[in-house]
Amino acid sequence: MLKKLVNLFQRHKKLAWFVILANALIALTKTVVDPIVLKLMVDDALTNKNMDLFLILVILSVFLSVGLRTGLYFIAIYKQKLINKMTSDKTGEMLGVYFQLPYQKVNEKGEGYYISRVYDEPAKVSQQVVGLSVSVFEAMLSLVGALAICIYLSWEVTFALLIIVPVLFALSRKYGSKIVRLSELEGETQASFREDMIRCLETYKLSRIFSLQQRVSQSALRVLGTHLDSNYERNKTSQAYQTLSNIFLSLAESAVLVIAALAVFFGSMTVGGLLAYMSGFWKMMNSIVGLVEQFPKLAHLSAFVDRINSLKDDAEKPLTSVANNVVLQHAAIGYGAEHILKDVSFQVDKGERCLIQGGNGSGKSTLLHAISGFIPLNAESHIPDQSRVSALLAPLTFFKGSLREHLKFDELEPSAQMQLECILKDFDLLDKLDDDPQHFSEGQKRKAQVALSLAKEADVYIFDEPLAAVDTNSKDIIMGWINRCTQNKTVFMVLHGDEKYHRDFNRHLALSGGQASLS
Ligand SMILES: Nc1ncnc2c1ncn2[C@@H]1O[C@H](COP(=O)(O)OP(=O)(O)OP(=O)(O)O)[C@@H](O)[C@H]1O
Q1: Where is the ABC transmembrane type-1 domain (predicted)?
Q2: Looking at the structure, do residues 348 and 416 belong to the same domain, yes or no?
């Protein structure tokens, strides 16, 4: 379990050890120095009215306190740096995994769910792993220091009091297992909660126009309720553990006072020794409780790390089909258990151009997703490897970056750059190369995606309604470029209307009632 958590430090081991050890050393210094100064102050300086010793002790305490606090300030800053680096590493890794997930999974859960899996959970785990490692080492070193001080002041009293410790350990383990089970549930509800909330907020325009605010709010509050209930359950268990632990601590507090006071009555301890012992003993108890508290947290964290890594189990192996034609044989295609296309058989060979037609909801986009390799097909069917496919698929999406970055323009060969510049000029997008396509008009977005599709060297080109939202003049320009750039390549295109371009295709695939017929 520990190894799994330590692995999270990976590339930042040096920084992690610096933060952990520096913090633990400061804690150890404070644990040892505080009781000794207190004893010297009471027994030697105050009792003997030794002003010089008193002043020396005060000045020493002030310097030490300022020095240690300044040290803690720098450690806090490095700690945050470490957390940020770990979060960034893990989120980067998880983003890589996200893009390997089967489309079916991404489609089923939604992007909001994966924000939680890719960012929230790694951020939370990084924060907690650093916090926990720092706390464990701080508690361990403080415990050693405090125990040494207590034994030095009175080994008999210390021996009598250490009997309480095993009880606290037994309690912590009992509650640890409960919290592990709850952390799994918490992670899942948190991720689903994100996705559902995003869907509610996305209805901004819909809600205002159709006065749906109240219903949207009700739906959001229902989702919130489930999320808060799960938080409440985990909190309840943690609080129960905390309360029990505090009760045992109060009992220990009374015991130490009584036993140490008896030692003073019988003359085996000075008053300064009693105060120093109380200070040392409480540091020891706090360290023990600090350590004990880490057990349920450790179990909770370990469950979370497993959850993050479990995303990797879903990653799909890349398809390595060498097929250069598209063959579907009795394929049933859909999302999850629901089949939109029930029994589809056709073959489109290399260099053929296939127009796909059918009414709304007949499964045109679904079929294009299958041919692009996003929806699995049966074993008898085969399609080319996704690396040899270029596709404009609905809905159009853009990451936060310029059109230049989307096109990987600066990595292209000079001849490819020149051709792309001609395309963008004809599409009236050349002066928008450095703009974010997310803020383009609908027609401009469509043109940007056509340019993106044509910029990829592929064997199969797929276009889902490339002329939608495009002005009449631009349609000829777009179709002209598509025809020029895809000569001798396989093309699948969905068009609604635009009959004048139908003659550009030698195959026609009609979808209806879950079936396909090719002519
Ligand atoms: N992402 C999705 N998840 C689940 N079901 C979906 C998804 N997308 C589409 N569907 C279902 O698949 C059916 C076919 O949708 P599809 O988008 O393939 O139709 P289409 O022929 O392209 O329609 P249109 O002409 O309106 O674009 C729809 O009835 C819809 O319920």
Answers
A1: 35-300
A2: yes
Question: Which atom of ligand 1 is closest in space to residue 465's alpha carbon?
Answer: 27
SS3 490: strand
pLDDT digits (tens, 9 = 90+) for 69-113: 999 999 999 999 999 999 999 998 998 899 888 888 888 888 888
Among 36-50, 233-247, 266-280, 493-507, the range scoring the smallest mean pLDDT is 233-247
CATH (domain of 131): 1.20.1560.10
DSSP string across 283-310 = HHHHHHHHHHHHHHHHHHHHHHHHHHHH
B/e letters for 122-147, b = 16+ CB within 10 Å, e = fewer, are bbbbbbbbbebbbbbbbbbbbbbbbb
- How many domains does the chain contain in total? 2
- Mark whether 50 and 186 lie in a shared domain: yes
Q: What is the pTM of this model?
A: 0.78
Q: Which 3-state string (H, E, C) describes 72-113?
A: HHHHHHHHHHHHHHHHHHHHHHHHHHHCCCCHHHHHHHCHHH
**Using alpha carbons only, what angle is made at residue 383 by residues 382 and 385, rounded to the nearest 5 degrees?**
125
**Same-domain check for residues 182 and 284:** yes
Chain center to CA of 279: 42
> Phi, psi at residue 390, to the nearest 5°?
-115, 135
pLDDT in tens, 186-206: 666 777 788 888 888 888 877
Q: Which atom of ligand 1 is nearest to the CA of 369?
A: 18
43: DSSP letter: I
**504 CA → ligand 1 middle, Å:** 26
Q: Which residues lie below 8 Å from residue 108, measured CB to CB, with a gap of 6+?
A: 335, 336
Residue that terminates a domain, selected from 288, 313, 338:
313
**CA–CA separation, 82 vs 103, rounded Å?**
34
Q: Which domain holds residue 368?
A: 326-518
From 106, 107, 335, give the residue whose CB has the most ligand 1 atoms within 8 Å, as the site to mutate: 335
Cβ–ligand 1 distance for 307 under 6 Å, the answer: no
Q: Give residue-wise pLDDT tens across range 318-374.
A: 666 667 789 999 999 998 778 889 899 999 998 999 999 999 999 999 999 999 988
Which two three-digit tokens encode residue 154?
């009175």
**CATH number (domain holding residue 466):** 3.40.50.300
Q: Which of 3-12, 282-291, 474-483 has the highest mean pLDDT?
A: 474-483
- For 398-446, write each residue's pLDDT tens digit: 888 899 999 989 999 999 999 999 999 999 999 999 999 989 999 999 9
Ligand 1 contact, 361 CB (< 6 A): yes
CA–centroid distance, 368 to ligand 1, in Å, is: 11
Ligand 1 contacts CB of residue 364 (under 6 A):
yes
Tell me, yes or no, whether 249 and 353 share the same domain.
no
Same domain, 267 and 347: no
